[in-house]
Design brief:
Blueprint (H helix, E strand, L loop, with lengths): L35 E9 L2 E6 L2 E7 L13 E5 L10 E6 L5 E5 L7 E6 L3 E7 L7 H14 L2 E7 L7 H7 L5 E4 L2 H6 L1 H7 L6 E5 L6 H8 L8 H8 L10 E4 L6 E4 L43 H6 L5 H16 L4
Parallel strand pairs: 3-5, 8-9, 8-11, 9-10, 11-13
Antiparallel strand pairs: 1-2, 1-4, 2-3, 4-5, 6-7, 12-13
Bound molecules: guanosine-5'-diphosphate, magnesium ion (MG) and zinc ion.
The site of guanosine-5'-diphosphate (GDP) has 18 residues, from α3 and α5.
């Protein structure tokens, strides 16, 4: 999403010559070669807000694309009234090739996939250390989704003012994934945002996690505050400077190039779409132990080498248990 990565600024407003103006009108259906490029910021019941140049434009998708064809993060070609004025409705005529697709299903046995976000580079998995209690298996599920979609995972542990991060970090540090720990006073001082921002620069990052973990609080700390800059964009998208989350929402990162995408809270992260053989990718700490496995080992069978390897103390039994649970629910399609 680098193309749109720059924070829109008053100085950036340029007037582009309108190629429509001097073209003779015909009754041949336009082929949309004069479409503008935009990025989808929100989707709400068939209405999409798109960023076109520096303007927030309300649009719907052309009928031939299907009503739910475009998702947050999509790069689109858009035609019609692109003024961004009230009561205008533009039309999305093409959806660009996606660099990544973050999918989830409501449950493992639910074949209906929703695309959460398109074109994200990174998945920030937000977990509170308390209130609500951390759920390592939900973290593991999100990691599976991230590795499967080719997104870089970032573990964000919030509310360290309420409980210590040590126990969770003992597990997740070994995975070699990036992590940040935040707490209330650091949110207020801006220090938390400064530290998290370092991991977000130049990337589009989708924030996922259980409801109440502090996603929106963090996202709000990361998007522009300065009235003269992109706050206009935030206001146009959300109707006010701050927002609550009912659907995914892409916002420009303040003070750096990048996008943050807030998403509604999730209770589970269904992985129906993930091939069971790819689940192990989210357990890099266990991968070396699979060297002694029989060919095409499911890692959930009696000959699996992981049991002995973990028993030798190379990784924690809890991690193997988590892997097995995920594999079992993927196979038998039970809830987790
Ligand atoms: N103690 C504490 N509370 C926090 C922290 N971050 C967020 N909260 C609170 O947690 C609640 C849920 O936050 P919210 O951002 O709406 O969570 P979301 O549902 O994940 O978007 C709010 O009352 C926040 O004020 C933190 O670091 N420490
Ligand atoms: Mg929220
Ligand atoms: Zn195995």
């Amino acid at each position: 999403m680098r193309r749109y990565g720059k924070n829109p600024d008053e100085d950036d407003i340029r007037t582009r010559p309108n190629p429509k103006g001097n073209r003779p009108r015909t009754n041949i259906r336009p082929k949309h070669e004069d479409a503008s490029e935009g990025m989808v910021l929100t989707v709400d019941r068939g209405r999409l807000t798109c960023l076109v140049e520096d303007r927030v434009v309300l649009a719907m998708t052309a009928r031939e694309l299907g009503r739910k064809a475009a998702v947050v993060g999509d790069r689109v070609d858009i035609v019609g009234d692109l003024s961004g004025k009230k009561d205008t409705l533009a039309r999305i005529v093409r959806i660009g090739k996606r660099t990544s697709v973050l999918r989830r299903t409501a449950d493992d046995d639910d074949p209906y996939e929703r695309v959460v976000v398109a074109n994200a580079d990174q998945l920030a998995i937000v977990t509170a250390l308390a209130d609500p209690e951390p759920r390592p298996r939900l973290i593991d599920r999100c990691l599976v989704a991230a590795f499967d979609a080719g997104l870089e995972p970032l573990l964000v542990l919030t509310k360290s003012d309420l409980a210590s991060a040590d126990e969770l970090l003992e597990t997740y540090q070994d995975l070699g994934i990036h992590y940040v720990v935040t707490r209330r006073d650091e949110l207020e001082s801006g220090f938390a945002a400064d530290r998290v921002r370092e991991y977000l620069e130049g990337k589009a990052t989708a924030f996922v996690g259980h409801s109440g973990v502090g996603k929106t609080t963090l996202v709000n700390a990361l998007v522009p505050e300065d009235r003269h800059r992109s706050t206009g964009l935030v206001n146009a998208v959300t109707g006010r400077g701050r927002h609550t989350t009912t659907s995914a929402l892409a916002l420009p990162l303040a003070k750096a190039d990048g996008w943050v995408i807030d998403t509604p809270g999730i209770r589970s992260f269904g992985l129906h779409h993930v091939d069971p053989s790819r689940v192990i990718l989210a357990f890099p700490d266990l991968v070396p132990g699979t060297e002694g496995c029989p060919r095409a080992c499911s890692h959930d069978e009696p000959d699996c080498a992981l049991d002995a390897w973990v028993a030798e103390g190379h990784a924690s039994p809890a991690r193997l248990y988590s892997l097995r649970r995920l594999l079992a629910t993927r196979e038998r399609r039970e809830g987790d």
